[in-house]
Amino acid sequence: xxxxxxxxxxxxxxxxxxxxxxxxxxxxxxxxxxxxxxxxxxxxxxxxxxxxxxxxxxxxxxxxxxxxxxxxxxxxxxxxxxxxxxxxxxxxxxxxxxxxxxxxxxxxxxxxxxxxxxxxxxxxxxxxxxxxxxxxxxxxxxxxxxxxxxxxxxxxxxxxxxxxxxxxxxxxxxxxxxxxxxxxxxxxxxxxxxxxxxxxxxxxxxxxxxxxxxxxxxxxxxxxxxxxxxxxxxxxxxxxxxxxxxxxxxxxxxxxxxxxxxxxxxxxxxxxxxxxxxxxxxxxxxxxxxxxxxxxxxxxxxxxxxxxxxxxxxxxxxxxxxxxxxxxxxxxxxxxxxxxxxxxxxxxxxxxxxxxxxxxxxxxxxxxxxxxxxxxx
Length: 377
Description:
Structural class: alpha+beta
């Protein structure tokens, strides 16, 4: 069945991307190539051959809103164009599109986290695996933006990539949580000067601050001192044979460091105790934050940050096959990663079907009407 409604928000933002090819080699419009790739990925496609096969199978349906002047592009065309296209153009397009569907890219909470595409390395040419950094709005459950660590150091280049990602986003009134890779004074300053708050994990890369946080919070737990302000909160979850207790202590004892760490206010300890059958595990995580002593809020923020593993990384790897994808052609790994995030956001936005992302992807592959709904939600 043909699409009865033009998916304007997607088509409009894709149409604004400049085509890097010379005019005489443009047998297929860039808009058509990208739209087919995204639609195919929504339906479970994982690479260039899948894109071409999907296009041929759905040609009549696609032609209801795409021009397709020379039919469906071949898998070689998908490979060549996605290897040539500057990923920054797709990054900017992702932000513009997400802003259009979420009304604003401001969010109450943004989780910033990195992910390595393990099969994207090329040992022969000395190219390391691609390491992406995503900004995830926990409230909207959408990836708002993505960038990549551009150097050869992977994780070691993550702080610079995080700083670049933050520059893409409106942070005023937003709380930004980042793992230890982003715990640097410059990043804290960048967030604070943009009008945001921060919650940054503390590990061995900041040994002095970690020691100070440990001492301050231990004093509260042992009731050996009473700082200016402190707070405690506990949450308990039960289900599927599992009991999880999350305890949070916040101590406003960080002002001497505020000159170096802009707006730094509190140290945090979150302790996660998990009991599954007869196995008990306890994990402790320390943080520094610009937020006052509100343990309930910080406990919720930390839990929301951990949600990026299940809501983003797990979906990309298990449902969309990202970790196993062996694409290594020029810029194609970065562009395919962005195409997957477009597809994941669209599947998550369509809420009339109560199945998970994998189930919605299957239905979109079987039903043109439902795929239309995913595109236009």
